[in-house]
Predict the 3D structure of the following.
Amino acid sequence: MMEIYYETTISFNCIEFLPYVLFLVISLIFIGKLKKLYDLYIKLFFKFNFFVLFFIFIIYNLASTASLYSKMQYITKIKSLEQRVVTGEIEKLVEKEGASRTQSFSVSGVLFKYNNYQTEPYFFANLKYNDKVIFNGGYVEIHYIQDNGNNYITKLFIEND
């Protein structure tokens, strides 16, 4: 009998975009007033040019917005028919441990590889390593999505004795 061991909790709300978009719009509309405030009050503490700081804040907001957009694309893939399922025994398990822990294995010819620090928090990365649910010969059912040549685990069922 199979029991669910892991299921993604990824969610998204359009309101997550709001602070970044508002900051960008307000900053661009009031750039002149922001520069005057900077020159009067903040320039005393920071030796940076206003436009250098402004550029850094704009880049940060654009990067944050891009990250949210990427998350939104993952959700779309998970909810669509792009999610795939593979069932079988775990084979070719390789574990590498250093500053972080990387594991890779295959199930019915499909390769999975993840790292406990680099894998997005809404995909399986075997953070409960001591549970020993991933082992050679273990029978699993894996739901996953593909992105840029990587297979990300969204749901993991393990065989329960």
